[in-house]
Amino acid sequence: MMDNRARDEAAQWFVRLQDAGLDATERERFDAWRSEKPEHQYEFDVLQGLWSAADLVPKARLQALGEVPAERPQRRGVLRYAVAASVVAVALGLGLFSGLDHPKPYRADFSTRLGEQRQVALPDGSMMDLNSRSVVSVHYEKGRRSVELKQGEAMFSVEHDTRRPFVVAAGAGQVTVTGTRFDVRRDDDQTRVVVEAGTVKVQGRSPNEGVTLTAGLGTHINDQGLVAASYAVNTEELTAWRSGKLVFNNASLGEVAREVSRYRERPLRVSTPAVGNLQLTSVFKANDTDALLKALPHILPVALRTLPDGSQEIISR
């Protein structure tokens, strides 16, 4: 489902432009609105496409749809109907939407700061939930919806579109879907993919090798581009960050340190492989990792020490 607010605002601006034009002050406001969000320009472009295409539809086709009176309306009548009934409904009814697939490429970059989470609505109705310290670039074109996860983690809820696959590139791998819900996490040494709903195809450096994941399955791609066999995952635990939680179920302290580092100014480390192999089962708040560090010595035989650079290290006690 598209952003109705952006669509309605685009329609209001378009009507004003057709009715009487804009003075200098209004033009500045309109230009500011268009540049405020990528979806604003997108919705305005769709309206322009519908406006131009309406005159190409045969009169009999319009009457058969029951959308207009017997006499062919002027452009302003068609536009006013589109505004009242919604751009998408009219475009689908007229069979025009396939010709209005965003006339210009859609490009946008999104990021989150330390401890920040952000939800992003994309022009096709897909959603991205970005975790702390994440960076993504989005590029939509006629036959492909592309996202590059440059850093961090993102949950994708993808609108179904068989004509335009949704492809997420991360590290040495990529994930291809037409519509589903999945999480991708990029670390320095690997990229992890877990699926909550639907089906995704995960590939590494070789396009002929990969795995297909369905709900409840995951995999990872190492820094050499090799894709692991699929395995069962607890998606609720792995995506608990979306509700501000860190859930650890028999997780190694090495994994805990890596996860906690995403929410701290300086990284958390483990002193030795033996310490890193200790296991933790608990739930903490993502925005209060200090509480986790205070609790660790009471749960496991470890202590915390602060290093010269201000980072902290988990050591054996």
Topology:
Blueprint: H1 4-19, H2 24-36, H3 38-54, H4 59-65, H5 75-85, H6 87-93, E1 106-111, E2 118-121, E3 127-130, E4 135-141, E5 144-157, E6 166-170, E7 173-177, E8 181-186, E9 190-197, E10 199-203, E11 210-214, E12 217-222, E13 231-232, H7 235-238, E14 245-252, H8 253-261, E15 268-270, H9 273-276, E16 279-285, H10 289-299, E17 302-306, E18 312-316
Parallel strand pairs: 5-6, 15-18
Antiparallel strand pairs: 1-4, 2-3, 3-5, 4-5, 5-8, 6-7, 7-10, 8-9, 9-12, 10-11, 12-13, 14-16, 17-18
Helix pairs in contact: 1-3, 1-5, 2-3, 5-6
Organism: Pseudomonas poae
Domain FecR protein: 109-201
GO molecular function: sigma factor antagonist activity
Describe the protein's architecture and organization.
The chain is of the alpha+beta class. The protein folds into three domains: 4-100, no CATH class; 106-235, Jelly Rolls; 244-316, Phage tail protein beta-alpha-beta fold, CATH 3.55.50.30. It has ten helices and 18 strands. It has helices at 4-19, 24-36, 38-54, 59-65, 75-85, 87-93, 235-238, 253-261, 273-276, 289-299; strands at 106-111, 118-121, 127-130, 135-141, 144-157, 166-170, 173-177, 181-186, 190-197, 199-203, 210-214, 217-222, 231-232, 245-252, 268-270, 279-285, 302-306, 312-316. Strands 1, 2, 3, 4, 5, 6, 7, 8, 9, 10, 11, 12 and 13 form a 13-stranded mixed β-sheet that branches. A hairpin with a 2-residue loop joins β4 (135-141) and β5 (144-157). α1 packs across α3 (38-54), α1 (4-19) runs antiparallel to α5 (75-85) and α2 packs across α3 (38-54). The chain is globular. The termini are far apart. Residues 52-59, 61-75 and 77-103 have low confidence and may be disordered.
